[in-house]
Amino acid sequence: xxxxxxxxxxxxxxxxxxxxxxxxxxxxxxxxxxxxxxxxxxxxxxxxxxxxxxxxxxxxxxxxxxxxxxxxxxxxxxxxxxxxxxxxxxxxxxxxxxxxxxxxxxxxxxxxxxxxxxxxxxxxxxxxxxxxxxxxxxxxxxxxxxxxxxxxxxxxxxxxxxxxxxxxxxxxxxxxxxxxxxxxxxxxxxxxxxxxxxxxxxxxxxxxxxxxxxxxxxxxxxxxxxxxxxxxxxxxxxxxxxxxxxxxxxxxxxxxxxxxxxxxxxxxxxxxxxxxxxxxxxxxxxxxxxxxxxxxxxxxxxxxxxxxxxxxxxxxxx
Length: 318
Ligand SMILES: Nc1nc2c(ncn2[C@@H]2O[C@H](COP(=O)(O)OP(=O)(O)OP(=O)(O)O)[C@@H](O)[C@H]2O)c(=O)[nH]1
Ligand SMILES: [Mg+2]
Description:
GTPase/Isobutyryl-CoA_mutase; 54% helix; alpha/beta; single chain; 15 helices; chaperone; binds magnesium ion; binds guanosine-5'-triphosphate; GTPase_ArgK; P-loop_NTPase
């Protein structure tokens, strides 16, 4: 069995390295399901390639996919090869969003310089799953110049995406409640840039003013970066070129201040934490007796955790 896997992995890697997108698709499926062949491939190609990774987050229906679609066009105009990950795209508000994403981004399907993938994976605590970051690493190793990662900003996922991406774009709309959402502790701070999308609707100017005042009060960013605000109409593409320039400016800022490496370290830290969390959850599910002993006060939670994940636990994790 193991031998069959090895040769499968070798064949897949050969095609992957040649730039075969079907091999990429297969690899993503294997990685997402945690299959050993996927893990083996990822281990070998990891660290190849260097993409500008842009996280795009915001409340459901803010226009993240429509804006991503426009940003892809802009990136292509500049000759970049683009990978897109839409993580957990189904939203309770817009419903059927995976289909919506497909339709919105359909025009790129004939373009060999664009690869779009939806992932229906969510982490244990509602944040970004480790599998999504593994998929991102695969896309990067495949050699894309730019990777957009769209996540719905509900709960933990917008904070997670900021740990994983180099540049985080928060998409807001003039719609009631959106500004309140943005002002929630933690969300303002994660955005490197803001897009006030649906600027064709009333209330856009006011939202920009509110954001500006809030930003003046927020703590300074590394290297003195001040998050810019871009009005956009994703439906028509208005403002998207300026927004793209903003993404580029942030990337240059990261380079000039030596901050890119810090972002990569943070992504790796996030991945290790995700693995610990996932293993912990899996092991704890199968440890009813031990958990009961903790409940009775016979074993401390720390002792239990050590028994489940300590040195002897490694072989039992397989
Ligand atoms: N008026 C207006 N409508 C827009 C604009 N951008 C997007 N929309 C519409 O807003 C709706 C949601 O757009 P999406 O791009 O699917 O939004 P999303 O943020 O990706 O949504 P989820 O992935 O479901 O969270 C669609 O009906 C779009 O046509 C805009 O600039 N102006
Ligand atoms: Mg979407």
